[in-house]
Design goal:
Elements (H helix, E strand, L loop, with lengths): L2 H19 L5 E4 L3 H10 L8 E4 L2 H9 L15 E4 L3 E2 L5 E2 L6 H10 L3 E6 L12 E5 L4 H10 L3 E4 L10 E6 L7 H9 L4 E4 L1 E2 L6 E6 L2 E6 L2
Parallel strand pairs: 1-2, 1-3, 3-6, 6-12
Antiparallel strand pairs: 4-5, 5-11, 7-9, 7-10, 8-9, 12-13
Helix pairs in contact: 1-2
Length: 225
C-alpha cells in the first residue's frame, strides 16, 4: 500500500472508532496534519453523528467548516469526549513527538482536555525510541536565542524554523540530535521549565490512549504497554 493509502486506512479506522464511542451531542477534538485531513473528509458525511468539533489549528478549523462540520471554541465546552490526531513519531508506550506541522501547543491543550486521545498513524511513524525526528519547540520570539542556548546545553542542535510563525504568533525551533530520548517524560519536564518555551513537542506526560496504526496488512489497535 502507498503512504496515502495507509493514511486513508488509519483515518477510516479512526472514524469507525469515533462513531462507535461517541453520541450525537459529543464534542470531539480534531488534530492537524495530512492523516487528520483524511479523517475530516471521511467524517463529513457523518457530521450529524457528533455535536461539534474543537480544532487544534486554524488550518483544521477551516477544513472542518468547508465540510460544514460545526467548530466550537474550547473555552465554550466542558468536555472533549475524544481527540483524534496524528504523530511524527510514536513509541510502544504511546509517547509521541508532534509538531512537525507547527500546531503542537494547541494540540497539547486539546489532548489535555480530552477524555480519550486516539492517535492515527501509518507504519513509518512507529519507533522503538523517540528522537530521530527533530523535536519542535514553540518559543516566545524574544526568547529564541536564549532557548537555543539552553537546548545546546542539553546536547541538542537547535535550528530556527525561519519563516514559520505558529497560530499563536510564536517561533519554532527544531531540536536535532536528541536521539534516543529516554525517559521522554523527564526531558518534556526539563524543556517546560526553560524560560521562553511555550510548549515542546514531546507528548509523554499525556501520551495517547490508543494508537490506530496502519500497516500493509491492515490497521492494528495498540494500547500502551
Amino acid at each position: 500500500m502507498s503512504a496515502e493509502q495507509l493514511k486513508q486506512a488509519a483515518a477510516q479506522a479512526a472514524l469507525d472508532y469515533c462513531l462507535a464511542r461517541t453520541g450525537n451531542d459529543a464534542v470531539i477534538g480534531i488534530g492537524t496534519g495530512s492523516t487528520v485531513n483524511h479523517f475530516i473528509t471521511l467524517l463529513a458525511p457523518h457530521r450529524g453523528r457528533i455535536g461539534a468539533a474543537v480544532a487544534s489549528s486554524e488550518a483544521s478549523a477551516a477544513l472542518l467548516r468547508q465540510h460544514r462540520i460545526p467548530v466550537v471554541d474550547l473555552n465554550s465546552v466542558a468536555e472533549v469526549a475524544l481527540y483524534v490526531d496524528g504523530a511524527d513519531e510514536i513509541n510502544p508506550a504511546l509517547e509521541m513527538i508532534k509538531g512537525g506541522g507547527g500546531a503542537l501547543t494547541r494540540e497539547k491543550i486539546v489532548a489535555a482536555v480530552a477524555r480519550e486521545f486516539v492517535c492515527i498513524a501509518d507504519q513509518s511513524k512507529w519507533v522503538e525510541h523517540l528522537g530521530k525526528f527533530p523535536l519542535p519547540v514553540e518559543v516566545i520570539p524574544m526568547a529564541r536565542s536564549h532557548v537555543g542556548r539552553q537546548l545546546r546545553a542539553l546536547g541538542a542542535h537547535p535550528e530556527w524554523r525561519q519563516g514559520a510563525v505558529t497560530d499563536n504568533g510564536n517561533y519554532l525551533i527544531d531540536a536535532h540530535g536528541l536521539y534516543p530520548i529516554a525517559p521522554a517524560r523527564r526531558l518534556e519536564e526539563r524543556l517546560n521549565h526553560i524560560a521562553g518555551v511555550v510548549c515542546n513537542g514531546l507528548f509523554a506526560l499525556r501520551p495517547a490512549d490508543v494508537l490506530l496504526l496502519a500497516r500493509s496488512g491492515g490497521v492494528d489497535t495498540i494500547r500502551a504497554r
